[in-house]
Write a structure and sequence with these properties.
Bound molecules: alpha-D-galactopyranose
Largest sheet: 10 strands, mixed
Shape: globular
Distance between the termini: 20 Å
Structural class: alpha+beta
Number of strands: 14
């Protein structure tokens, strides 16, 4: 993503629409994330991996003279306008809900907000699969905090952003997306333990200097609220309830991450078939994350990639979160020459797939992958595309000369 020209476009818009002189604009960049391993287990408190990429949400902003928030988007129409004291409850149902949710989350947490802001926001690829909703929330949180002189750590912002998504927007998701956007470091794998909200940065070994991230968009997009996402979360809870009751631990919160391996082995026969598949996905994915981290540490990209592909297969057959276009895309990517492994990048209900590819090969594969996908899904071909990305640092402010300053 050409951040410099995106900054130019946003600051011109901020000046012409909101009257903010160009030299007064500030910028916050919240990157999207990929999730190489750890599909759909964050909400069950499993371990997951993430990496920020060099594309994401850019917000240009300046403090407002009053307690009002006034926002425009380069991607969505209209102006969003609300006061700090009445961000809106229930949801307004428009693109401004993330900003309303950010003000609400900060206020709920006891932060005193005295200053509103004016801003213009933009981000490519809102098709889904890269945690873009979380990145939007992160950008608003950081901007509102900055104009109010609040010093909030990246780890606290993970929780604030999750509050926007779960408590305000109603998605029963975990902390994968916001952790990936906030905590990542370039050329590192971020390992997040969702049961303790702690994380570890694992550097890419020297021998892996020639890997690339390939992202392929299916052409399908729709918001996660409204898919089977929340239903699958409820099925995981139902499976956990049965296992914990069987283990005599009915008082425990029904999350698969609370079920011990030994309890799963002993009582899994009690699960009805559908719930057994959800549980199987959880426990096998936890194992894949553990083995994948070991492979990454050893520089074994083939091993790591095979686990990604196995994660994709389990998402399809056990978690049943795919849809035909995404499954086609996954199969096309897995077969690509030089692909270590591939899987749905996000929830898998729409959006994109991600592949880890031997560095020199990635650019050559863009056209052939698109062609192979177009043969399977001709009606989506015009909206589908394939891009090569790089890993990046987590969310940060960008100064006028584009020098990043960390969150
Ligand atoms: C979405 C959710 C995340 C996570 C992934 C699947 O991106 O927002 O919390 O559950 O799906 O791994």
């Amino acid at each position: 993503m050409d951040i410099e020209s995106a900054k130019q476009r946003l600051s011109c818009e901020l000046q012409s629409r909101q009257g903010v002189p160009r030299y007064s604009a500030k910028f916050v960049f919240a990157p999207y994330r990929i999730c190489p391993l750890g599909a759909h287990i964050d909400h069950q408190l499993g371990p997951v991996t993430a990496m920020a990429i060099d594309h994401g949400i850019l917000l240009a902003y300046a403090p407002s003279a009053d307690r009002e928030v006034r926002l425009r988007s380069l991607d969505y129409p209209g102006e969003v306008r609300f006061g700090l004291d009445s961000p809106g409850e229930p949801l307004a149902g428009d693109w401004g809900d993330y900003a309303r949710g950010a003000v609400r989350a900060l206020t709920k947490c006891g932060h005193k907000l005295n200053h509103g802001l004016v801003g213009v926001i933009s981000g490519p690829w809102s098709e889904g699969g890269l945690g873009s909703s979380a990145a939007v929330g992160v950008a608003y949180l950081m901007a509102i905090e900055e104009v109010n002189g609040l010093n909030v750590t990246a780890v606290s912002n993970v929780m604030l952003d999750q509050d926007i998504e779960t408590d305000y927007l109603g998605l029963r998701n975990g902390i994968l997306d916001q952790s990936g956007s906030l905590l990542s470091r370039k050329n590192h794998l971020t390992l997040i333990d969702c049961s303790t909200a702690s994380h570890e940065m694992i550097p890419a070994p020297d021998s892996t200097s020639s890997w690339s991230i390939l992202i392929a968009f299916s052409g399908l997009n729709k918001a996660l609220v409204g898919t089977n996402y929340n239903r699958r979360v409820a099925e995981c809870a139902a499976a956990a309830r049965i296992l914990l009751d069987a283990a005599g631990r009915s008082e425990e919160t029904p999350l698969l991450g609370r079920v011990r391996d030994i309890e799963y082995a002993k009582y899994k026969e009690k699960l009805p078939a559908e719930l057994a598949r959800r549980a199987e996905h959880f426990f096998s994915e936890v194992e894949r994350v553990r083995s994948g981290v070991e492979a990454w540490k050893k520089g074994d990209l083939h091993g790591f990639g095979e686990l990604m592909t196995a994660s994709g297969a389990s998402s399809i057959s056990n978690y049943e979160c795919g849809c035909q276009p995404l499954i086609d895309l996954y199969e096309v990517m897995v077969q690509g020459d030089g692909v270590y492994g591939a899987r749905f990048s996000g929830a898998g209900f729409r959006g994109c797939c991600v592949a880890l590819v031997g560095g020199a090969k990635a650019a050559d594969m863009v056209d052939s992958m698109h062609r192979a996908y177009a043969e399977r899904q001709p009606e989506l071909a015009a909206k589908a595309f394939v891009v090569v990305c790089e890993s990046d640092d987590g969310a940060r402010w960008l100064s006028e000369d584009n020098t990043p300053s960390a969150a």
